[in-house]
Specification:
Length: 788
């Protein structure tokens, strides 16, 4: 069991601890405000564009983050910080001495600290990138599941495990992916996850509706979470105990969000007027209100739970006492103590130079001392702040460089051979995975597969039969136990290597993100393999982008694809996925035609997961059975496959035409080619295994004169240079024709690009290919038009 039970220790008295945290909180408020101000108002602006930053979003989280980072968090904990609080996170690291002033000064500038926490670009430790709201929340649940895998395998000592914490904005809770993750988290019995909501009741556009906030408790509790609501700060709770206090509390409870926010903005006097009017029949409450001056009243009304260190520390202690996942709703004020606090338009609000000057004076900071870490604190508060930092476990949370030795990925000769019988790329993929599962190597033990309810139909079933599904508690396949015939064994165990997901593609990509970050998070490489139907990549596209943005490493096998799935339905035909594959940085798109190509590419994809400069791979596969080419896999053919293309039939010198095909269109290309060759014996047939690799290589070569790689020639230039400019190329793919139409620009050949531009009509292959002009006769027509 992970070590969550240790109480949060402190050598300091509670009062001193709180005094120190309060001082540090004040520093976070200032430094985050000043970092943003500096970028917008002090640093020279060369292009006239708004730099931006979110002072109000930072101010609502500083108390929360002070309590967490300066007291509660341990280095093994992993945190996703809401995007707009990035300046607070950097300020924390600055105070710990791990972030430089120079980086703060370059906030949102080239090479400076990023707008939103970024694993790959920021110089400080960032556990999870954030930016696209909702994703950073959900990924923490999946990461806790990955930690549970390592714990269950006995590869991680409980004392090395941590908690997975997301600090999120309240409006993030509108993102549907959070609930998809919640469902999945419940099914997988996840634990040690805290989602802490900065409930400032404001989104980007305006004040958020209070309607849902009674319901979140139900939703999360239904899913097995403990919900801690921190509505009132300690001072408010004390006031409620005074005569007339209960009525004040009721007034607050009944007050709609927008009115509360407006009064917060208007301040003490406005509070007094409104309360006096509404509570005129409650003399004791009026008396209580009268006992405060305007400033004290204004402060009291905004000292909500999320701004009260006493309340927060108690809540975190409670949260740490069990491993049950926690939703902590911390009521806050957006922009608290800033001139636009509570204003519905404050999301991107920036203090003016006058206003920041006033804040500086109010915090006792001398002009010119803006970057001094502990400026504005009395000597005693400085001392307390130092004491608190000295005992904060997080002070040891350095940006770790991982030490695990690299895992050796099998060479091509050791990769299982899917054979030469008639087969589809999907079947070849399944066979290789199945054969890998027979092996007991370190490499194979690190393969973890996952799929959103399409494990069986994407041919992962063989792997899962052998390696089992992961669950912290073992369970047998009831059908097997009862001797009911089934090719699938659906047995769970703590050693299982497959994580079965419900049908939610966002979850697939977030699971792949978490698995793909295992080496960074847990110092243990995983080779994640996810399968999905190709059209549904689009469903999880932002999560896929999110995975790539933070350099998570994985393999995605998407199948079936294109119109070639024919009778399986027009709705599922995928056209634009090749363009997604080409357009997504960090992901290499492959589309093999034959089993031996799948073998070469899958090996490369595993290798790319491990390689320092590697990345993730997307294999666009098909269910179409093709006769295999009778050939041995020479080293040069394997190289060409990995370089993106090879001549299946080389054109003769000066040839006037070639057909360039990709993936499952191989038979049509070959049929047309055989006919073409009768009249034009020099024609060529180009097999393309990765339009993406070809294109990237060509782009790199094109810019090489200016990037210090002068003389670089791309693979596709070499291949096409045997054909003269002006000769013809018919390109063919079961997908968007623009995937390959650019080939004409490489050497000045003329292109007729065949592909699919519509979708939706079911049919068998002959009808479907005829409909989309992908058949041999369409290819010959295109060739004829080029030759004419
Ligand atoms: C997926 C996505 N959609 C839209 C945005 C633009 N956006 C950034 S912050 C924000 C509102 C966030 O409000 P909340 O989560 O309550 O944060 P806070 O009030 O703390 O700033 C929006 C719509 C985004 N970053 N990501
Ligand atoms: Mg908000």
């Amino acid at each position: 069991m992970p070590d969550t039970s240790t109480p949060i220790e402190s050598e300091l008295s509670r009062t001193d601890l709180i005094e120190g945290l309060d001082a540090l909180e004040q520093r976070l408020l200032w430094l985050s405000s000043w970092t943003i101000h500096n970028a917008n108002h002090v640093r020279p602006n060369r292009d006239g564009l708004k730099v931006g930053g979110h002072q109000a979003s930072c101010a609502s989280m500083t108390t929360l983050m002070a309590a967490l980072y300066f007291h509660v968090l341990r280095p093994k904990d992993r945190v996703a910080v809401k995007p707009h609080a990035s300046p607070v996170l950097h300020a924390v690291e600055y105070l710990f001495g791990r972030q430089s002033q120079e980086q703060l000064e370059r906030f949102r500038g080239y090479g400076g600290m990023q707008s939103y926490p970024s694993r790959t670009k920021d110089k400080i430790r960032v556990d999870f990138s954030t930016g696209s709201v909702g994703l950073g929340v959900a990924v923490t649940a999946f990461a806790s599941l990955v930690q549970d895998m390592w714990l269950a395998r006995g590869e991680m000592a409980p004392e090395d495990s941590g908690r997975f914490i997301s600090l999120l904005g309240d409006a993030e809770l509108d993102e549907g992916n959070i609930y998809e993750a919640l469902i999945e988290a419940y099914k997988h019995d996840i634990r040690n996850t805290w989602w802490i909501v900065d409930y400032n009741r404001q989104s980007l556009d305006a004040t958020t509706s209070e309607k849902m906030f009674d319901r979140f408790d139900d939703i999360f509790e239904t899913a097995g979470w403990d919900v801690l609501t921190l509505k009132y700060g300690a001072r408010q709770r004390a006031a409620f105990k005074k005569p007339g206090g209960a009525r004040l509390r009721k007034w607050i409870d009944d007050c709609p969000n927008d009115l509360y926010a407006a009064l917060t903005y208007q301040g003490g006097e406005a509070w007094r007027r409104r309360l006096t009017k509404d509570l005129k029949r409650s003399p004791k409450t009026l008396e209580l209100i009268e006992s405060y001056d305007d400033d004290t009243l204004g402060n009291l009304m905004t000292e909500l739970g999320g701004h009260c260190l006493v309340t927060l520390l108690e809540a975190f202690e409670q949260a740490a006492a069990s491993e049950t996942p926690k939703l902590i709703i911390a009521y806050t004020t957006k922009g608290r103590r800033l001139p636009f606090q509570g204003h519905k338009d404050n999301h991107s609000g920036l203090m003016t130079p006058t206003q920041i000057g006033e804040l500086r004076d109010r915090l006792g900071i001398d002009e010119g001392e803006e970057w001094a870490p502990l400026a504005g604190l009395s000597a005693k508060r400085q001392e307390r702040a130092r004491q608190v930092m000295a005992e904060a476990p997080w002070r040891a949370a350095t940006k770790e460089t991982r030490s695990a030795p690299s895992v050796s990925v099998p060479g091509l000769s050791e990769m299982p051979d899917p054979g030469r019988g008639k087969s589809s790329t999907q079947v070849a993929f399944g066979k290789i995975m199945n054969d890998l599962a027979r092996e007991e190597t370190d490499f194979v033990s690190r393969i973890v597969t996952t799929s959103p309810d399409v494990t069986v139909s994407t041919n992962l079933g063989g792997f899962v039969n052998r390696k089992g599904l992961f669950s912290r508690s073992a369970s047998e396949d009831v059908f097997k136990k009862r001797k009911i015939a089934s090719p699938q064994i659906w047995a769970h165990s703590p050693k299982g290597q497959h994580i079965e997901l419900g049908i939610a593609e966002n979850n697939l990509f977030l699971m792949l993100t978490a698995l793909g970050l295992s080496k960074d998070l847990f110092d243990q490489r995983i080779f994640p393999v996810g399968t999905v139907y190709d059209p549904f990549i689009a469903r999880g596209l932002d999560a896929l982008n999110y995975a790539c943005y933070q350099d998570a490493r994985f393999i995605l096998a998407a199948t079936p694809s294109g119109v070639t799935l024919a009778p399986e339905g027009g709705a599922h035909q995928s056209l634009s996925s090749p363009l997604i594959g080409m357009g997504q940085p960090g992901l290499t798109y492959w589309e093999p035609a034959y089993s031996d190509e799948v073998r070469v590419i899958l090996r490369e994809a595993f290798d790319a997961v491990e390689r320092e400069e590697g990345g993730s791979s997307y294999l666009r596969l098909s269910t179409r059975q093709l006769e295999q080419v009778d050939r041995d896999m020479s080293a040069s053919l394997a190289d060409d496959i990995l370089n993106g293309a090879y001549w299946a039939q080389s054109p003769s010198e000066g040839a006037s035409i070639a057909i360039a095909y990709c993936g499952a269109m191989a038979p049509e290309a070959r049929e047309a080619f055989e006919q073409l060759r009768e009249d034009l014996p020099g024609a060529g047939l180009l097999a393309i295994t990765s339009p993406d690799v070809l294109h990237r290589d060509w782009m790199a070569a094109s810019r090489s004169p200016w990037t210090g790689e002068a003389g670089r020639t791309s693979h596709i230039e070499r291949l096409l240079s045997t054909m003269p400019p002006g000769s013809g190329l018919v390109t063919l793919i079961d997908g968007a024709p623009s995937t390959l139409s650019w080939l004409g620009s490489v050497k000045g050949q003329r292109v007729r690009a065949l592909g699919t531009e519509r979708f939706g009509q079911t049919g068998d292959l002959p009808d479907t290919y005829a409909e989309h002009r992908l058949d041999a006769s369409a290819i010959l027509d295109a060739a004829a038009s080029l030759l004419a």
